């Protein structure tokens, strides 16, 4: 299980990722895919400070992540691919040649123009379309903040207005 999870989370590396998912999945590496962070040494250092020493963090642009995806999937230890927004995941899926089969929407938080779909997911209409576009490429898209929660399928996510 080299890549255990492909996650969209606008907070990137934080406790829910490192501990909440990291411990049950026994993650040994995080691939943070972000074009800006990949070119910023000081931001990379800040994110490295948030992970335990036994977990490594790799920083890639979308293009580099797509180019290295096959080798990342062959690593013997489990890892996670983490992006901060739906557009970045859409670009990665489009370049992955079908290698990404499932995407987890783990946290897209409130900002102006977004509508609450779940307690931890707020979306604009273009972001909703972005998720539909990812699914149209044969990817199973669901929302789940922590491993103990029920995964919410995309269709249910996009029609939810309860914020539950």
From TrEMBL:
Organism: Gemmatimonas groenlandica
GO molecular function per UniProt: kinase activity; protein-N(PI)-phosphohistidine-sugar phosphotransferase activity
Keyword Cytoplasm: yes
Keywords: Cytoplasm, Kinase, Phosphotransferase system, Sugar transport, Transferase, Transport
Cellular location(s): Cytoplasm
Top-rank lineage group of the source organism: Bacteria
Residues of the PTS EIIB type-4 domain: 1-164
Location (main, coarse): cytoplasm
Stored InterPro entries: PTS_IIB_sorbose-sp, PTS_IIB_sorbose-sp_sf
GO aspect biological process, one term: phosphoenolpyruvate-dependent sugar phosphotransferase system
High-level lineage: Bacteria, Pseudomonadati, Gemmatimonadota, Gemmatimonadia, Gemmatimonadales
A family per Pfam: PTSIIB_sorb
Signal peptide residue numbers: none
Annotated protein name in UniProt: PTS sugar transporter subunit IIB
CC per GO annotation: cytoplasm
